[in-house]
Amino acid sequence: MSASQTSFADAASMVDLDRYPIANLAAADGAAFTEKRHREYVATGLCMLHGFIRPDALAVLASEAGGLLDKAYFCRSAHNAYLAEDDGITDDDDVSHRLEETYVGSVAYDLIHEDAALKRLYKWNPLKDFIAAVLGKPVLHRFADMMGACSINVFRDGGEHGWHFDESEFTVTLMLQPPEEGGAFEFVPKIRGLPDEKAIVAKVLDGARDGVVELPFTAGTLLIFGGRQTIHRVTKVHGKRPRLVPVLCYSEEPGSTNSPEVRKLFWGRTGLEPQPVLEAGP
Hints:
The chain is of the alpha+beta class. It contains seven helices and 15 strands.
């Protein structure tokens, strides 16, 4: 039996339920807390819960993730802020032609041990139902993708994620370990669809700091983030300690998976074949 099994037989024991009463959303305190967080999400595009994971559980989760670093697949890419291909129509000076750099690794879900505390947390229905309520969704389903259901993002020295809007409506992340230096989560909230959207994006890409917010994304924090409407990035990481952030994926439709192309990009394979040789360090 693993240390995580011994210490945390159920996911509820990992969460600070005194501070965040999400185990029973029908109870008065759970309903009131969730409604407040829903209003917060609608207004700001994010719901951030500092200290969501108890310190003792955080130590186990971080240790588990750190033990999987040799299984991370790293990819380096250049992309525009919209994560879209060049349409060949827009003017040459349009922001869609400006490229940002991303270098990040990911540990696929199927490479995380079945007994891992992270998998128990991901499979905990009260967490899924709480996230759905915050988003105003009648129901959410756990992702059916055996690589991308709950993967672990790894930003080692030189890692970064350039400015971009997400393709998905929302993301759910859990900070397990910040780096020694860098790795800040920065965003300019809810600018997608504004009349001056591209002008704002251009200024952000030029390095302007007007409107840029840096989140205090500390270890143990759960973040529900509306990344399709908000441009954001992770600044370059420096030092020997990697930035470790699981990404918990959910869908409104059951059975949802990534495309083979997305699997190939982020995990180097399209199915459950053996892991390929990993890319060398920067």
